Every structure is written in structure tokens, then in C-alpha cells.
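Colleagues,

Please find the record for the two-part complex below.
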Amino acid sequence: MSRSLLVKEWREHRAAWLLLNLLLGIVLFLLLRAQKDLEDKGSVFALLQVPAVFLSTVGALFVGHRLVVREYGQRTQLFLEALPLSRPLILTTKLVLGAAVLLLPLAAFLLYLWNRARAHEDVSARFLLLLSLRAGTPVLLGWSFFALAGLLGRYRNPLYIILFISAVTLDHLTEFDLFKAGPFALLGSDFAFERQRVPWDDLLPCWALIAGAVALCFGLVLYRDGTLTELFSQKMSHREKVFIACLITGFMTASTMLGKAKHREPFALHDAEQTRVKKSAIQVGAGVGFPRERAQALSERLARELLALSDYLGLERLPAVAVLPIRELDADVFQRAKLEKADGIVVRANLSAPDFDVRAFEAFLFREVLIHVSEGVVLREERQWLLDGFTTWWAHRSGQEYRLPVRAAVASREGFDARSWLTTRERLGPCLSGALAARGVRALHTRLGEPSFQALMRHILARPPGTGLWGFWTEPRLASLLRERDGFSEEELLRGWSETLREDRETHAKELERVAGMKPSLSLVAESAETFRLEHTLQAAEGQTRPPRYALLHHKLEPFENEVAAHELSRQDTVPSASGARLPLGLARGDRWLFVVQVESETLGCPIRLLAERKEIR
Amino acid sequence: MSELSEPLPTPPPEAPPPPAPQPEPEIILRTQGLTRAFHDVKAVNGVDLELRRGEVYGFLGRNGAGKTTTLRMLMGILRPDTGDIELMGQRVRRVGAAQKRHLGYVSQEQVFYPWMTALELGRFVSGFYPHWDDARFHHLLHVLDVPKDRKSAQLSGGTRMKLGLALALSHRPPLLILDEPTAGLDPVARREFLDILRDQVRREGQTALFSSHLVGEVEEVAHRIGILHEGRLRFQGSLDTLRQSVRRVRVMESAPEPIPPGLSLVRRERLPDGHLALVLFGTPGDWANSPFAPETVETLSLENIFLAYARRSDES
């Protein structure tokens, strides 16, 4: 390595590198502050993943840009080449310096974590070596890749795009799970916990890739005396830009046209009662308080209902369904498991709870089936109310919808916006929002008549999803469908829906009055400069009786967190009192929380959310 | 190299007594069959250069003649496809870092780090040369009137070229290679640059290989020249030899005489009056023995000689 070149690089890039490290330091500092109880959560070394991911992506890209792209972009490599320096020496200096710049902060943070952890846990040298290998290898891989890309000059950005599309396509089309291999696996969930096994299967491919990238770097720099890299560093001509744009567009189109989901085996729940419908198994597990006979009966019922749904909507296939009885869940909370390697729907519910509502469960299950069949297309917000409404309406169809009007009346007491359905659903909860939407579906059914309504539902909820981007662009919008198929505007639909709701509210005015008489309140009280506590009360209006208890549901919101599912909410059951109650949690300044106050209603048969509020703690 | 570019015989002395034997000039750089192709195009084709210590060697050629490629090979930036380079007695296939420490190089285009000042550039470059003379660098900056603390991006083209010269001279290289250093400079800057170059070379006893496509400036500073055309060295020797050896002859187009032995054709040109103009190369002795009437032979300016060489393939 050349000392003079090292000094030059340091002088040229020190400010940028200090800035990069400062940024990383701030992120780590905030993370450390936010997770004061790291030791209780498992291992402090889990935090090492953050700088490893940052340095192997953003850091490596940044250093590659500074060390390689700038040098060739400004053509100052010509100046270096005229000095008594060989090209391999120039490249070696840059590669080693880049690696050092990226690995040093990682090593420093590892030392800090080690220092912090050794008071609590036994940190062996082997474990430290494993952590170093698992964190350092992805960083070196990222660096070698971005150094190589830097040498490709004007072709690096198209390369990034093409590689990204290829990776996503590969993951989508094949069994090979790219995002669980190599560097992704090294930084996987067992990162901070695997203390013995050296992950050779993931390390060796990474090292081979690093060696390959470094060899290519040298090849590029030395090929034809560096004239190739010099050529690459020049700006793209207009013709080249057009060609690259066409190439990328073609590549994207081809990958989306090929968008066939990878085949996975249907999920099999062992030792479960099952009924087959349309070649799929509806499996229900038995458990404590939920004997085999009931499991079999539920399995048959669900199979029957799913077949009916399938026939009505013309579904070509049904997914395998598995239902697990979990006694720890609330009766109105249903969970869907995420399947990594199998196909189908696995849901969990407290099937043995006395107040388990099978129709609510069916509505939930139908919703998940339609999401699965449409590959998520029905989740687009403009049609989500239709999905919620249809599945609730369908579950309550055979004259069993007597509670839907009162639920809808309560749900619509403060108005609603069908176009911001996610907000509406968070404010009302799944039960009331389902009823509200079901009344809209009923209004639509009444307006269109059975044949048209069925055809519309088939088109919107059951049509196989379009393929990739093409499918997205050609996906018809609800408003245009209504207008084109039935000569019916969305405004007319909303008017009809509102009219139905108005009638519901008139019919159930007494219940509305009772709900209106309940006054929940939340207040934040500072405990220190940085922490707060939440106090909450539920008062009743004069002449009204307070409910025997209410629940405060709460959930800390992550950045960019969208919808919070019902099962993600923690719950504090409280007996209303004049002095109010306190949430037994310290709330840190700057955090964002979702708070919901809800009461159970026997009349409605589901909880009423009296208040739902996203709050920033300050 | 064609027959014209073979080392030229020195004109034989006639009447005067033989002079005292001169010591053989030391050859500081010699190339043999230097060749480099880019794809199918031979940019440099079998060039045999010879530079003597203490001389300024003017390397003349049109744009694209192969001058820069030759100089980049001499600087080790490009590797010759074939041929050898002998630098200060050391024969190498490719000039490496060790040899480059004895070379000063001013390229056609000065690509400095834009954020560095002249002083910072000097500090950076000094790390690569064991014989770097910082006092000389400061002196050269002063003499060349280069602002020391201004970033290189803010310097004019002429000042950047002077800075390049200061950087190239400050480690006192025995051989200075300048690749069209005056291209793009205004007349005043060009004059200053040439004066400084001539002065430095004379004072320090350095050797300079100076490429250009401007005959006038080469004539002004060079002791010997080489003319490169389409990758081939067409002539190498002193300016005087060139002037004495190349002449133009007017002959009748209808009855062209054969070219006498000893003379070789450089260029043939058809004149509007029905005559042919032949530019021929030969030693003064060959010219003396030629059958041409004296009134049909004329000497040429260096520029016209260069044109005759450079345009030979166009119209001959």
C-alpha cells in the first residue's frame, strides 16, 4: 500500500467518513437509549446487526462512491497513473482502506457491546469470533460489490436496478429463498444467539463472492491498461441511455410477465379433524376444552360454508385451512399465522370460549381466504370496506343478521369515510366496522339485485389477480366498475348506504343514547423530563349507569406502522371509578402509541370502541 | 519504420581536416520496435526513438499520429504490445514505478484533484519521489507565477500547465516527457511556457521529450526532432539535417524522370501548370550527384517539410 495515497484519501474523505460515522453513532445511540432493557430482551449483541446492515449497504455504497466513483468520475486516476504507482497498488490501497473504514466502526461497536455484556453474560472468544465473522462478512461483501460497481462507472446504476429486479424475481419464482441465504442468513434471527456453530454454508459463498468481486475489480483495472474503466467512467450517451432504459423496462416486463408464484405444499396440521372441500383440507385441531367431536363439527361447518362461498363467488380453488384452538386468546380475537414454507391459511382462535362467536370467526376466515385467493389485491384500500362488508354479510346471511343493524347504528354514530377505510376500521374495531361495511353491502345488494350483485362481487373479490405491474395497471376501480356495469355511481351507493344507516340509527336510538352517555378520557402526566404515565377514566353522563368494566387497549407504534391488528393490542381491563386508573407502563417522550377505550356490549354482542387515538408522547 | 526513418547518415566532411573525435553522446532513452494497437488500429507501429542526454527532442505529428500513445508507453501508463524500452541503460518491456521515479511527466490535460492547492499537490506528489526538492518546487511556483494556496480547480489552463511543469521538475528528473503541453494555451502563456522549459532544461542539463503538432514551437526549442505519421516514425534527426536533406523538385508531368538512387520520395504533388512537385529526401551528397537542374530544386521551410511528411499518404 502507498502511504502517500492513504494520506491523500484520508484528507479527501475524512469529513464525509466522520459524517457517516456520526450518523451511525446517532442511530446507535438512539437505539441504545430506546432499548435500555436490552439485557432482558435476550442479548445486547442483537444490536450489532444494525451497524452491520447499515455498513454493508449504505456505508459500502457511500465509501464506494467516495473512493472509486469519484476517482474515476473526475478522471484523477490518470494523474495517479502518471506517478510512480502501479494500478494494482492503487486499487489495493483503496480496497484495504475502504474495508478498514467500514470494519472499524463495526469493531468498535462490538467492543462496546462486549464491554457492556460481560457483566451479565459469559462471552467466549469463540462467540466473539462468530459475531465478527457474521457481521464482518456481509460488510466486506457489500464493500467488494460496491467497489466493483464503482469501477463500472456509468453502468453501475442500471446494474443496481437489474440486480434488484433479478433478486426479487428469483425469490418469487423459485424455491430458493434468496433472502435467507448468504449475508441475509448471517445477519438472521439467530445472529446474537448462536454461540457454537460456524455457519460455513453461508460464510463460504460470501467469501467466494468477495473473492470474485475483488478479482473482477483487478481484472477491470488492469484490462487494456485501465482503458476500460476509463471508458466506463465517461458519461452515458443519449443513445446509450435510451438503450439502457429499454433494457430495464424489458427486464421488468419480462420478470412481471413471468410472475408465477412459487409452488408450496399445502399446510398439514397433524392430528387434526379434517373435511375435504375442492381438493383442499379444512383442518381443525382439538385441544383442552375443545374435544374432537366439536373439532370435527366445526371442520364440517367451515367446509360447507367455504364451499358455498366458493360457489357463490366462483372461486377456482380454495386454500388449505387449519384452525388451532388457543385458550389464551380473547374470544373475539383471531390470529392468522404467517407461513414461510407451506401454502394455506392457519388461524388461531379461542374456540372453547363461552362467548366465541362462530359467525364472527367465519367472517374473519372468509376474509383471509379471499385475501389469499386474490393474492392481496382485495386489500387495496378503496375496496377493503367491500371485503370486510361482504365477508360479514355472507357470514350472517341466512337470516342471522339481526345484530348487524344495531352494530352499524353504533358504528356510524360519528359518521365515517369509506374511502379511508383503514382509519375507520382502527377507530371502530373489526366487529363494528364489519357490521358497518355489511350494511353498505346490503344496500348495494338491494340496489343491484342478486344477479348483478353476484357478478360484481365475483369481479371484484374473486377474480384471479392480474400479473405483476400489468395486472396493477389493468385492475378496474370500483367506481368505474359500478358505473360501467350497472350505470350506478359510487355517490349513489354511498347515499343508499347512508340511508340504511340512518334508519338503523333511528331504530336503535336508545342504544346510541347509552353509548353517547359514556365519556372516556385519556391524559398524559409527566413523571420526569422524559417519561410520562397515562391516566384514563370512563365517566357516565347524568342519569346513565357506568358499565361494570371497560378495557384500555394499547400498542406502541413503530415508525411507518400502518394498520394495527386487533391481536396486536395489549389490554388493561379496568373497573370504572371516579378517580380513574393508570396504565402500568412508563411512556417515553417521543414514542407513538395507539390507545383504545372499549366496553363490551351484550346488546351488540361485540366491543364498542368509545375512543381510538394515536398519540405522540410529549 | 520505413526506409526514410532509418538513422540518417551524417553528411561526409569534404575538404576541411577531420575534427577532433567527439565523445559519443549518452543515450538516455531508446525504444526498439515499439508497437501498440487498439483493436485493429495500430496506433504506434514499430517506433525506434533515440534521445541523447541534455537535448530537447521535438516529437512532431498530426493529431492522432500516435504521439500520446508513444509517450504513455514511455511513462508506463500503457504497455507496448511489442518492442522494448531502454531507459538510462536499463532495458525493460514496460516502464515500472522504479523507472518512473526518474521521469517527469506533463500530460496533455492536467487532471489534478480539484480540492487540492498547489502546495497540497506538491506535498502529495513529493511522497512518491525520494529526490523531491521542496525548495525547488517552491522556487518553481514562484518563478512560474503559480498561486500556492488556490485550489487547482480555480486555476486557469495555462497556470495548471505551469503547475504540472513545476510538479514534473521538482524531483529533478533526468528525463522530462511533455505531451503537447502548450495545446490549449493562449500565445502569451505558450511563449512563457516554452521560455521556462528551455531555460530549465539548459540550466539543469535535463533531457526533454516534447511532443507537439506545432512546427514553430518545436523549431524554437528542439535540438533534434522525430516526425511521427500514422504510428510510424518517418524521420529522426537534427533540424539542420532535415532542412538539408528534404528538397522539392519541379519536373514535367508528361516526362517524369526516374528518382535517382540515394534519394527517396516523400511526397508527390500535381501542380496546376502541368508540372509535378516531388519532395525528396537525400543526403547532401546524394543531392549533389542528382541529375536535377539547380533551378528546379528548392529548399523547404520546416513547416513545409512537416506538411510533406504528414500529408504524404493523402496525395502521393
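The first strand of chain A starts at residue 265 and ends at 266.

Comments are welcome before we finalize the supplementary table.
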